C-alpha cells in the first residue's frame, strides 16, 4: 500500500475501456429486442430476427476473443512493469 | 403416433448406448491419479482438464438433452418466444469471462469444491453457505429429472416403453435400464465418465444438426417455404409468431438476461469449471464455447421444420424426435436418437455429482461430521449421487411430466438468488453476510409466490406454477420472475448492509486474501495435483 505511487499504472486505461466495451456490447445489442424484432430483410429464406441473432453469436465471440487477447497483453505488461520496478 | 418399434433405429441406438457404457466404466482408469479416494479426484476429475476437455465437458453439461428437446419444442408451440435461448447463451460468455477466473483461482488456493465452500470461506457464515447449498441441490434435482424426460421422449418415439405399453413395468423398463447404467458408472468413475462420454455426445450432436439443417430444408422446399408454413400455423392458432410482438419484448429480454445470470450459479456448471487445470483454460473457453450457441440456434430452427413437415403432436416434447423419425432414414434416425439419449446421460451424471458434492461438503462436513476424512467425503458423495438420481427417477415415474418442468422453471428462479453472495463475494467483501442471507430469503419467497400465481397458458386446469413470467411491479411489463426477484434481492442486500454496518454487526472472518483471486496454476500455494497431461490436453 505504501509503495511509490508513480510506478503503479492507473486502474482505468484506454485498453481496459476497450475491453469493457467488448464485453458490454452484446448486452446492449441483445437486450434491445425492438431493434431486431422484424422479419425483413430475410437471408436465404430465414427471417431477419433469426439470422441477426445467430450473427451476434459470431460477433460476440469475436468481441470476447478480442477482450481476452487485450487482457492478456495488459496483464503481461503490468507484470513486466512491476518486475522492472522492483529490481 | 406409435406405429410399432423402429427396429433399425433401435439397433443403432443400442449400439451407441453400449459403446458409451463401456467408455463410462473405462473412464475410471483415464488419467488416473495417486490419491483416488479424494473428493478432488472423484468429484472434479483431479482438477486436471485442459482447454478441449473442459470445452466438451461444459458443452455436454450446459446443452442438455432437455435443451435439444425443449428449445425446438418451444419454437414449435410459440415461435419467436422460444428463441430467447440464443441471446441467453450469447450473454453468458462475456459475463462469465469477468468472474469465473476469480472463482477458479480462489477455489484452487483454498481447495474449494463447491460454490458454498467459497461463500463460507469468504463470509465466515455457515448459514449463508447452507442457503447456497440447499438452493443448489433443490434447483438441480428437477433438472436431472428433465434429463430422464428427454430420454423418455426418444424411447417413446422409437416405440419402446412410454405410452405404447399399458403395463407400468414394461413401460418404464428401458428408462430403468438407462438409469441403472448411468448410476453405476458415475458411481465408479466420477466426473471422468461424463468427461469422456461428452466427446461422443458432442460429435453425434454436431453431425446430426449439420445433416438436419441441410437435408431437411431440401426435402421441405427451402427455408422460405418452411417459414411461410410456420407463419400460417401461428396465425391460424392465434398464438405465437415469427417475431416477438411489442408486448412480449420485455419478457424476451428479461428471460435472456435472467437465464444468463443464472446459468453459472448452477452447481453442475461450477463443477465442470473447477475441474479445469488453469485459470487460462477458463478464459480461453469463454471464447470457444459460443460454438455451441450457434448450434443451439440452428437446432431451434428445427421447431419450424417440424411445423412445415406436418408433425402433429399433442406433447411438444415429442416434436423433434418425431421430426427425425419422419424425415430421416431409420439408421440415421437411430443416430439422432442416440445423440439425444447420450446427451441426457452426460449432464445427468455431472448434475448428480455436483449435488452430491454440495451435500457432502456443506451439509455433511459442516453440520454432521466436521472431522470427516477425504475418503469418507468421497464415500458419502458417491452414495448421495446415487440417492439424487433415484430421487429424480421417482419424480419422473410417479408425477406428471409438467411437474418436473414447472419445478425446473422454479429452480431457475431460485438459483439466481445465490448470485449476489457468489459473484458479489468474488469482487467485494462490502456486503454483510446477514444482509446477503436476508436478500436471498426475500428473493426466494417473492419468486416462489409470484410463480405460484402464474396459470398455465396452454392448460386451463393448471392454475399455479404455469410459467416463469409475471408483471414486473412498478414497470407493468411482463418479465421473467427470476430477474425481478434478483433485483429485489440486491436491493434488500444493499439496504441491510448499510443498516448492519451502522449497527456494527459482526462481519465474520474472511479467510481469503486479495491475491487469492488472481492466482494461477504454478503460483506458490496453488495446489497442483494434476497427473502429467496426456490425451486431449492442449497447449
What can you see in these coordinates?
- The complex is a heterodimer of chains A (87) and B (539).
- By secondary structure, chain A is mainly α.
- Chain A has helices at 14-31, 48-86.
- Chain A has a domain at 29-76.
- In chain A, helix 1 (14-31) runs antiparallel to helix 2 (48-86).
- The longest helix of chain A has 39 residues, at 48-86.
- Chain B starts with 6 loop residues before the first helix and ends in a 37-residue tail after the last helix.
- With 539 residues, chain B is an all-alpha fold.
- Residues 528-539 of chain B have low confidence and may be disordered.
- The longest helix of chain B has 39 residues, at 330-368.
- Chain B has a single domain, classed as Sodium/glucose cotransporter.
- Chain A binds chain B through residues 22-24, 26-27, 30-34, 37-39, 42, 44-47, 49-50, 53-54, 56-58, 60-61, 63-65, 67-68, 71, and chain B through 80, 83, 86-87, 89-91, 93-94, 97-98, 222-227, 242-244, 246, 249, 252-253, 256-257, 283-284, 286-287, 290-291, 293-294, 297-298, 301.
User: Per CATH, what is the topology of chain B?
Assistant: Sodium/glucose cotransporter
Task: Say how many strands of chain A there are.
Answer: 0
> What's the structural domain tally of chain B?
1
Query: Tell me, what's the shape of chain A?
Result: elongated
Strand content of the residues of chain A, in percent?
A: under 5%
How many DSSP H or I helices of chain A? 2
Q: End-to-end distance of chain B, in Å?
A: 50 Å
Query: What's the main sheet of chain B like?
Result: 2 strands, antiparallel
Topology (SSEs and partners):
The complex is a heterodimer of chains A (87) and B (539).
Chain A lengths: L13 H18 L16 H39 L1
Helix pairs in contact in A: 1-2
Chain B lengths: L6 H20 L12 H6 L6 H12 L2 H14 L6 H26 L4 H9 L2 H33 L9 H22 L2 H29 L1 H16 L11 H15 L3 H8 L4 H10 L1 H19 L10 H9 L2 H39 L5 H25 L2 H16 L2 H9 L5 H20 L16 E3 L6 E3 H22 L37
Antiparallel strand pairs in B: 1-2
Helix pairs in contact in B: 1-8, 1-9, 1-16, 3-9, 3-12, 3-13, 3-16, 4-7, 4-14, 4-16, 5-11, 5-13, 5-14, 6-7, 6-19, 7-16, 7-17, 7-18, 8-17, 9-10, 9-14, 9-16, 10-14, 11-18, 12-16, 14-15, 15-16, 16-17, 18-21, 20-21
Amino acid at each position: 500500500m505504501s509503495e511509490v505511487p508513480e510506478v503503479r499504472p492507473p486502474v482505468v486505461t484506454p485498453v481496459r475501456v476497450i475491453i469493457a466495451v467488448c464485453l458490454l456490447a452484446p448486452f446492449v445489442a441483445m437486450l434491445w429486442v425492438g431493434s431486431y424484432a422484424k422479419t425483413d430483410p430475410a437471408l436465404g429464406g430465414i427471417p431477419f430476427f433469426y439470422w441477426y441473432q445467430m450473427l451476434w453469436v459470431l460477433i460476440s465471440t469475436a468481441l470476447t476473443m478480442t477482450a481476452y487477447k487485450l487482457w492478456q497483453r495488459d496483464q503481461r505488461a503490468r507484470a513486466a512493469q512491476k518486475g522492472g520496478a522492483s529490481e | 403416433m406409435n406405429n410399432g418399434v423402429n427396429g433399425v433405429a433401435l439397433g443403432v441406438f443400442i449400439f451407441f448406448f453400449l459403446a458409451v457404457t463401456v467408455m463410462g466404466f473405462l473412464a475410471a482408469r483415464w488419467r488416473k491419479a495417486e490419491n483416488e479416494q479424494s473428493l478432488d479426484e472423484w468429484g472434479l476429475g483431479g482438477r486436471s482438464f485442459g482447454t478441449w476437455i473442459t470445452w466438451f465437458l461444459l458443452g455436454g453439461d450446459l446443452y442438455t438433452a432437455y435443451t435439444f428437446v425443449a428449445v425446438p419444442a418451444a419454437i414449435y408451440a410459440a415461435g419467436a418466444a422460444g428463441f430467447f435461448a440464443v441471446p441467453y447463451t450469447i450473454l453468458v460468455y462475456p459475463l462469465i469471462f469477468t468472474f469465473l477466473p476469480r472463482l477458479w483461482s480462489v477455489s484452487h488456493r483454498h481447495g474449494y469444491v463447491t460454490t458454498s465452500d467459497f461463500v463460507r470461506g469468504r463470509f465466515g457464515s455457515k448459514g449463508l453457505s447452507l442457503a447456497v447449498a440447499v438452493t443448489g441441490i433443490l434447483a438441480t434435482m428437477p433438472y436431472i429429472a428433465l434429463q430422464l424426460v428427454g430420454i423418455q421422449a426418444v424411447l417413446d418415439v422409437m416405440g419402446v416403453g412410454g405410452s405404447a405399453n399399458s403395463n407400468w413395468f414394461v413401460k418404464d423398463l428401458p428408462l430403468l435400464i438407462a438409469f441403472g447404467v448411468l448410476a453405476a458408472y458415475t458411481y465408479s468413475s466420477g466426473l471422468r465418465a461424463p468427461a469422456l462420454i461428452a466427446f461422443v455426445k458432442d460429435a453425434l450432436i454436431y453431425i446430426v444438426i449439420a445433416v438436419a439443417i441441410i437435408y431437411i430444408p431440401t426435402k421441405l422446399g427451402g427455408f422460405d417455404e418452411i417459414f411461410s408454413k410456420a407463419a400460417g400455423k401461428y396465425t391460424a392458432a392465434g398464438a405465437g409468431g415469427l417475431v416477438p410482438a411489442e408486448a412480449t419484448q420485455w419478457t424476451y429480454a428479461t428471460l435472456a438476461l435472467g437465464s444468463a445470470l443464472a446459468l453459472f450459479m448452477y452447481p453442475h456448471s461450477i463443477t465442470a469449471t473447477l475441474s479445469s487445470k488453469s485459470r487460462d483454460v477458463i478464459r480461453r473457453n469463454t471464447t470457444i464455447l459460443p460454438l455451441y450457441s450457434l448450434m443451439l440456434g440452428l437446432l431451434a430452427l428445427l421447431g419450424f421444420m417440424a411445423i412445415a413437415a406436418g408433425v402433429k403432436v399433442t406433447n411438444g416434447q415429442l416434436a423433434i424426435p418425431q421430426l427425425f423419425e419422419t424425415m430421416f432414414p431409420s439408421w440415421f434416425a437411430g443416430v439422432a436418437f442416440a445423440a439425444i439419449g447420450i446427451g441426457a446421460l452426460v449432464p445427468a451424471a455431472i448434475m448428480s455429482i455436483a449435488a452430491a458434492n454440495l451435500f457432502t461438503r456443506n451439509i455433511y462436513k459442516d453440520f454432521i461430521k466436521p472431522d470427516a476424512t477425504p475418503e469418507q467425503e468421497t464415500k458419502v458423495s458417491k452414495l448421495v449421487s446415487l440417492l439424487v438420481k433415484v430421487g429424480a427417477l421417482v419424480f419422473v415415474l410417479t408425477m406428471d411430466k409438467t411437474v418436473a418442468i414447472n419445478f425446473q422453471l422454479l429452480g431457475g428462479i431460485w438459483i439466481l438468488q445465490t448470485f449476489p453472495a457468489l459473484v458479489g463475494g468474488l469482487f467485494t467483501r462490502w456486503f454483510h453476510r446477514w444482509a446477503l442471507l436476508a436478500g436471498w430469503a426475500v428473493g426466494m419467497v417473492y419468486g416462489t409466490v409470484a410463480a405460484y400465481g402464474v396459470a398455465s397458458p396452454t392448460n386451463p386446469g393448471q392454475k399455479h406454477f404455469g410459467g416463469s413470467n409475471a408483471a414486473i411491479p412498478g414497470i407493468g411489463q411482463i418479465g421473467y420472475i427470476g430477474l425481478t426477484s434478483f433485483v429485489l434481492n440486491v436491493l434488500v442486500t444493499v439496504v441491510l448492509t448499510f443498516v448492519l454496518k451502522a449497527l456494527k454487526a459482526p462481519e465474520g472472518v474472511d479467510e481469503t486474501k486479495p491475491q487469492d483471486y488472481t492466482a494461477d496454476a504454478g503460483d506458490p500455494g496453488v495446489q497442483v495435483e494434476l497427473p502429467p497431461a496426456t490425451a486431449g490436453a492442449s497447449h
